[in-house]
């Protein structure tokens, strides 16, 4: 730095060294700006109705599956972020603090596997999944958070809220119908893959059982 003919040193050259630490105190909510879209979305929509609505599709015993509210929020993120692949969706979510905040996961919590998302989608009949997903999206449109594409969504009454005028409005890149069509194709591929895997897993067992029965009969 030059000052009236003199060279004034700026001090030693800085170098940032990164050392990963275990956070002793970290609140995700403090890291998400107040105006962030997904933070406002979390505060604007109540999806508690999904619990009684989807309860009939779950069993009464066994290991607990993914929370239906979390599942449909992830499906919503997939649509808003234009992501069809469940694997890419979960990779995307793992790198976004605001999305983790939306779905209620902390930074040190393991996210659901992409295969869990696929299996959960298969749990619901196609028409039920699309109806519930459309309802969730409609709530976002009603709160003035998302711009709808289909007639059913576009006709939803949007709340007049002057404070929303300067905030982010999500405009999905493709029509809802087209997105759901791609999801149907993906789901069909997942189902086919699951059936093939089960057949491969049970095939040798059945063959061995048949061989043992044939050997028993021969000995007789």
Major pleated sheet: 2 strands, antiparallel
Alpha-carbon Rg, integer: 25 Å
Distance between the termini: 101 Å
- pLDDT < 50 stretches: 150-167
Q: Give the proportion of residues in helices.
A: 55-70%
Question: Total helix count?
Answer: 10
Trace the largest sheet across and list its strands: 1-2
Share of β-strand residues: under 5%
- Number of strand elements: 2
Q: What oligomeric state do the depicted chains represent?
A: single chain
| Whole-number mean pLDDT | 77
Q: Element order, helices and strands?
A: EEHHHHHHHHHH
Class computed from helices, strands and strand pairing = mainly alpha
- Give the overall shape, derived from the CA principal axes: globular
Structure overview:
The protein is mostly helical. 55% of the residues lie in helices and 2% in strands. It has helices spanning 28-31, 37-44, 50-54, 68-80, 86-94, 97-103, 114-123, 126-142, 151-154, 176-219; strands at 2-3, 6-7. Strand 1 and strand 2 form a beta hairpin. Helix 2 runs parallel beside helix 6, helix 4 (68-80) crosses helix 8 and helix 5 crosses helix 7.
């Amino acid at each position: 730095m030059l000052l009236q003919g003199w060279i004034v040193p700026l001090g030693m050259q800085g170098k940032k060294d990164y050392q990963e630490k275990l956070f002793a105190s970290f609140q995700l909510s403090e890291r998400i700006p107040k105006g962030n879209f997904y933070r406002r979305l979390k505060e604007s929509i109540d999806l508690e109705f999904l619990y009684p609505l989807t309860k009939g599709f779950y069993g009464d015993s066994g290991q607990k599956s993914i929370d239906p509210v979390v599942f449909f929020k992830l499906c919503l993120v997939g649509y808003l972020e234009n992501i069809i692949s469940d694997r890419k969706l979960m990779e995307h979510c793992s790198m976004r603090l605001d999305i983790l905040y939306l779905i209620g996961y902390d930074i040190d919590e393991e996210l659901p596997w992409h295969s869990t998302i696929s299996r959960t989608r298969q749990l619901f009949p196609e028409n039920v999944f699309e109806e519930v997903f459309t309802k969730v999206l409609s709530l976002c449109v009603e709160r003035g958070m998302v711009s709808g594409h289909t007639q059913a969504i576009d006709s939803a009454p949007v709340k007049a809220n002057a404070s929303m005028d300067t905030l982010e409005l999500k405009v999905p890149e493709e029509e809802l119908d087209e997105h759901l069509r791609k999801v149907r194709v993906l789901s069909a591929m997942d189902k086919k893959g699951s059936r093939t895997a089960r057949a491969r897993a049970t095939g040798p067992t059945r063959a061995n059982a048949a061989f043992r029965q044939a050997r028993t009969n021969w000995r007789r």
